[in-house]
Amino acid sequence: MMRGEKGGLSPMQRVLFCLGMMVTAVCSAHPFLGAELSVVMFLWARVYGKVPVGKYLRMFRLPLGFLALSGLVLLWEYSGVREGILSFSVGPGYLSMTRETVLRTILVTFRALGAVSALFALGMTTPVTELTGVLKRLHCPDLICSLMYLMYRYIFLMYQVHGNMKQAAEGRMGYMDYRTSLRTTAGIYGNLLAYSYRQAGANFDAMESRCFDGSVRFLSGKYRKDWRKTVILVILVLLEIGICICWRSWPAI
């Protein structure tokens, strides 16, 4: 390995691999493929990215909650006749749960589970600076890449400021009852909005004083080409695509 080069997969390889898995999950015609892809991407993030199991599961609870709520909505359909497994009279029609809606919900939920797992694995193994570098190599406009990084960065800054404000409010009995907690919460978010405007203006002035031209640049490392790992990733993607094409026995299709 030459001096200054890094081992492992390059950001472009990781992005293409995870996007290939995500597209395969979205195009799958059987829920087993989505479940299998979520396990594969979890193992890839654990083995390659050294992501702790507890951290992965804690962060994955939020998308699982969204998937559960979306699944509950997809289970029902509104029609003018009583039908299906369950049916409730709502206005002039009926809100029904049928066999078709159950099969559709299972398929869509597992598709989304596989796609979200691929995005999670990408986010946990690739820093945002490398992601913006990949986007620039793909000729994405500099404005979009810069806004992407700045928004990502200031989400964490605002989250930290919000935590400090909330901690200060708790120390001053700002949550002693329901009415006081509502007033405290409104005050915190109002102050947070004003602070974000002030901080954005100050940071933009600081960037302009450093000859900011609309593009945020980072030093990119060089990665040693490892054809064996590249071949393994290609084989994995082709294998999943083959399973996606061949496995079409789900009744919802």
Topology record:
Blueprint: E1 5-6, H1 11-27, H2 31-47, H3 53-74, E2 77-79, E3 86-90, E4 93-97, H4 99-125, H5 128-137, H6 142-171, H7 178-209, E5 222-223, H8 227-246
Parallel strand pairs: 1-5
Antiparallel strand pairs: 2-4, 3-4
Helix pairs in contact: 1-2, 1-4, 1-8, 2-4, 3-4, 5-6, 6-7
Structure description:
This protein has 253 residues and is mainly alpha-helical. The chain has 8 helices and 5 strands. A 3-stranded antiparallel β-sheet has the order 2-4-3. It has a two-stranded parallel ribbon with strand order 1-5. Strand 3 and strand 4 (93-97) form a beta hairpin.
Keywords:
two-stranded parallel ribbon; 8 helices; disordered N terminus
Question: Tell me, what's the shape?
Answer: flat
What is the terminal-to-terminal distance?
Answer: 50 Å
The strand line-up of the biggest sheet is 2-4-3
Helix content: 55-70%
Rg of Cα set: 24 Å
SSE pattern: EHHHEEEHHHHEH
- Number of beta strands: 5
What's the rounded overall pLDDT mean?
83
Class by helix and strand content? Answer: mainly alpha
Short précis:
The chain is mostly helical. The chain has helices spanning 11-27, 31-47, 53-74, 99-125, 128-137, 142-171, 178-209, 227-246, and strands at residues 5-6, 77-79, 86-90, 93-97, 222-223.
